[in-house]
């Protein structure tokens, strides 16, 4: 069972919003990119994203996804269960595979969500409790590498930072996410550095924001939270790297399409 969320997790989640694509990864997507992506996923019948529908007047509207969004810090234990983590990883793999090799991926591997977190995940009640089945908040989607989204899932869903008593449990869960996704050796080798990249990117973005500069207490707390998370992750980087070493990959041959 994954430890329950905290206010720190949600400060970091807010920090992880991507304002613009990284210049070293992909060009900025066009103004209709998100609509095109959602239509593409809907065309293939993928249930993990909102779909465009027609209202009574024939206007195109974004459909509703029913369920529970894990926005608040306190959540039912099933939201943080290992089974839920596995399902999140598999959902990410599904939409990545649906966009690989398409115009939506551009010159990158896939279309990435770029804002994956509990607060952008929709859960529904099943026999074993709440389980994830869809993502919302696609506004920052754009071309990228598979490991970009997987790394963000690891940070946001595991609350990687000093609130963790030790790195052993989180490192095992990062490996669980990588295994469930089917991450290939080259991406596993980059996973820890990509988590740190996200944290550094968010830290720099927050520190440069008007709110932080104006003495906003919430913004200042978010800066300190992400700074502490980055320092903690950097301190334990070797332990995480060992836990997710490429030798752990299962059935890599079935995922040759990523190569």
Concise synopsis of the structure shown:
The chain has helices at 7-15, 33-43, 82-99, 146-158, 168-181, 185-207, 210-213, 217-235, 237-243, and strands at 52-54, 60-62, 68-69, 110-112, 121-126, 129-135, 142-144. It is mainly alpha-helical and 259 residues long.
Distance between the termini: 33 Å
Order of helices and strands: HHEEEHEEEEHHHHHH
Task: Please tally the β strands and state the result.
Answer: 7
Describe the biggest sheet?
A: 3 strands, antiparallel
| Main sheet strand line-up | 3-5-6
- Average pLDDT score: 86
Compute the number of structural domains.
1
Structure report:
The protein is mainly alpha-helical and 259 residues long. The chain has one domain. It is built from nine helices and seven strands, in the order ααβββαββββαααααα. The chain has helices at 7-15, 33-43, 82-99, 146-158, 168-181, 185-207, 210-213, 217-235, 237-243; strands spanning 52-54, 60-62, 68-69, 110-112, 121-126, 129-135, 142-144. The strands form three sheets. It has a three-stranded antiparallel beta sheet with strand order 3-5-6. Strand 5 and strand 6 (129-135) form a beta hairpin. Helix 3 runs antiparallel to helix 4 and helix 3 packs parallel to helix 5 (168-181). The chain is globular.
């Amino acid at each position: 069972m994954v430890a329950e969320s905290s206010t720190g997790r949600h400060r970091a989640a807010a920090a992880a919003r991507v304002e613009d694509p990284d210049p070293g990864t992909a060009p900025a997507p066009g103004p209709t990119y998100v609509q095109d992506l959602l239509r593409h996923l809907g065309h293939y019948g993928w249930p993990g994203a909102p779909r465009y529908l027609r209202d009574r007047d024939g206007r195109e509207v974004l459909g509703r996804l029913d369920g529970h969004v894990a926005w608040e810090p306190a959540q039912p234990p099933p939201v943080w269960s290992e089974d839920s983590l596995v399902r999140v990883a598999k959902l990410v793999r599904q939409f990545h595979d649906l966009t690989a090799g398409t115009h939506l991926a551009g010159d990158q591997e896939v279309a990435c969500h770029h804002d994956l977190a509990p607060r952008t995940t929709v859960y529904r009640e099943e026999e074993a409790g709440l389980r994830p089945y869809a993502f919302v908040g696609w506004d920052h989607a754009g071309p990228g590498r598979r490991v970009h989204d997987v790394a963000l899932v690891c940070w946001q869903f595991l609350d990687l930072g000093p609130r963790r008593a030790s790195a052993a449990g989180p490192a095992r869960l990062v490996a669980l996410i990588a295994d469930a996704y089917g991450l290939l050796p080259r991406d596993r080798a980059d996973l820890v550095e990509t988590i740190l990249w996200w944290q550094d990117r968010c830290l720099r973005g927050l520190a440069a924001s008007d709110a932080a500069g104006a003495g906003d207490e919430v913004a200042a707390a978010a800066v300190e939270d992400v700074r502490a998370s980055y320092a903690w992750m950097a301190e334990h980087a070797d332990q995480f790297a060992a836990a997710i070493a490429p030798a752990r990959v299962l059935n890599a041959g079935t995922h040759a399409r990523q190569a």
